[in-house]
Amino acid sequence: MKDLTTEVNAVFTARSIADKKSAMLSLIENSHAKAETKKLSKLRVERLMHASAVDKFATNYLLSGEGMKI
After folding, report:
1. pLDDT single digits (tens) 28-69
2. By the 8 A CB rule, do 28 and 41 touch?
3. Please, where are the H alpha helices in the chain?
4. Taking Cα atoms as reference points, which of 61, 67, 65 lies closest to residue 44?
5. How far from the centroid of its chain's Cα atoms is residue 32's Cα?
6. 57-64 contact pairs (CB < 8 A, 24+)
7. DSSP three-state, residue 39
8. What's the rounded Cα separation, in Å, for the pair 59 and 70?
């Protein structure tokens, strides 16, 4: 299991929606998820419209990677 705390914190501290999405894409790339999961997650990030939705997705992605499916 890879520690993605730094990447998640980057998502939370980003000010604009574009910066949050960019940080989220970095989080996805640095994770140990399967290629298909990464691809689907990246597509989902592009569809998110609110900063709070990106934050929520980052939290859920982190927890899912730790075996706590959300």
Report:
1. 999 999 999 999 999 999 999 999 999 999 999 988 876 666
2. yes
3. 5-13, 17-30, 35-47, 51-65
4. 61
5. 12
6. 57/24, 58/8, 58/11, 58/12, 58/23, 58/24, 58/27, 59/8, 61/24, 61/27, 61/28, 61/31, 62/4, 62/5, 62/8, 62/27
7. helix
8. 9
Looking up tokens 């998820």, which residue turns up?
33
CB–CB of 7/54 below 8 Å?
no
pTM passes above 0.85: yes
Of 33, 50, 49, the closest CA to residue 41 belongs to 33
- Beta-carbon contacts of 45 under 8 Å, excluding residues fewer than 6 positions away, are 21, 24, 25, 28, 54, 57
